[in-house]
Structure formats: C-alpha cells, structure tokens
C-alpha cells in the first residue's frame, strides 16, 4: 500500500505584505547607501612632504555630475600660489547605472616653510576633508660641479656718469638647465630713463666645468638726478626640473650704485647735451635751378647726437631778415638704437 503525504505551509496575506515591505526597504536602503557613498569630494596630494619652491599637485575628485562652477579655490590663496588648473571627466557604467567622475588637478606652490593645511574645498554642495602638507627648507640648488644652474649678473658701462649722460646696462642670464614659464623683471627707477636695446645676444661660456648658455640683454640708461642712484637687483623666476620634481627658482643680481655728476658750474651755455659726438649738417633744396625773388627754398638742418634722447637735443631758432622770410616746420625725430649700445 502506497501512501503520499503532502505538507503545506500557509502564509497569511498580512505576512506577505510585511515581507514585501521589508524587501522594498532593503532595496531602497541599498540604493540610498550607494548614492550617498558615491556623492563625495576627495582631495589628495601627489606628495605630502616637499621642499620650499617645489610644486605640489592637488587632485580633487567629485563623484557626482552636478558640480556647478567647479571647485572654489579661494581658500588656497592664503598659503599657496596657484600656478595652474586642469580638468577631466569620466563616466563608469555598472549593471545599467552610470557614475560621473570629475577630476581637477591644481598645481600649487607653498608660500612658507612648515606644516600647512589644504583646507576643505567646496564643489557643488559638498566639500573635501582637509589635507596636511609639510614644507621643508630647501638647500641651494647646485649641479655636480657645485655650480648653480641659473645665475644673473648685471653691469654698467660707467659708474660715474654726468647728469642725463647715456650709459649701458648689461644684464646677463646664465643657464645650464631648461627654464619653464620664465618671468624676467624689467628694470625701472623713478630717477632713471631706461630703454631696452634691440636683439638679445646669445653665447656660451664654461665656468668651473659647467657650460652655460649666456643671454645678454642691454638697456640705455639716462640718470635724471645727480648724486647716488642705485639700480635695484635684476631678477628672474622660473620652473626647472630636478631629481625630486619641478621646482621654482628665484635668482637676482647684485644692485648697482651710480654716482651721478651734476652739470659743471663752469658750463654756462643754455642747453646741456651730454653726448659722445654731435654733428650738424645743412642742405638747401631749390624748386628751380635759377630761383627768383618769391620762390620757395627748403632749408634742412640735421643734428645728430650719439648717446642722447631726441628730447635732449635743443631747439634751433632762426629769425627772418629783410632778405628772406623763414617759415619753420615742426622738427622730426628719428632714434636709431644700436645692437649693443655702441
């Protein structure tokens, strides 16, 4: 005799509702947890210990799409110089869902030595956690021969010029490495008129076993006050690659002192024109080979002063006589700058 036995479990409708509600809450919790976990801003550094004048890279990551105008970098400006910023975006797909990833890479230069903090950076409605950075004092940057990779030297053609006399300021930049984003200062002084001469001159020089590229830049300088006048140090800052990464270097020359001589008391003329050489030439242009009374003639007077500015050349005045009448025209100036101040 064969007997079949069936066991049946009966679940009430209320129990099914409770199970369905619990399952939906679990799914919703998982979805919300994933969403909350994805929506975040993280900040990381490529290194946590650097030397002064060394560049550090800050990477900001936003795991959501609505980033507004991007990161607010204003809090960084207190302790860092912001050298640059780049951005890229990525999308990842998993089980039919997509996740937006936004990255910003910010190049920073610490302003001081010690422990500084990358403050929280706001992106959209979220912000990152602070990050600490240690900045150490950097030793002088020297090559294997014990020489600096960059030098700046300045000299003048005359240290005791007369008032308004032209002298030549030569600034020589010595480099044994490639410079990036170089920023070279322009000489200026309230008591000096300074004009750059055309064409930098390039040469090569070996110093203590190191070969340097030498770029010479020259300026015409005209002192406008007698007494001691100091030309301030000339400077350059640039990025260079070192064994530890990119580094900012700042180099400057020594200041130059001028002892400007006033106009001698024995000089009694009205116009003062300090010049290496002054020449005056004239020409007369006729409108006819045999001019007659009432014809017009053009009288041209050329004055050349070597090492002088156009405004230094005194005005030339002539008066009409009973034999002729003069009709002066405004003077025309032409400045020719030598290649090397000669």
UniProtKB/TrEMBL annotation:
<dbReference type="Pfam" id="PF13584">
    <property type="entry name" value="BatD"/>
</dbReference>
<keyword id="KW-0732">Signal</keyword>
<feature type="signal peptide">
    <location>
        <begin position="1"/>
        <end position="38"/>
    </location>
</feature>
<protein>
    <submittedName>
        <fullName>BatD family protein</fullName>
    </submittedName>
</protein>
<dbReference type="InterPro" id="IPR025738">
    <property type="entry name" value="BatD"/>
</dbReference>
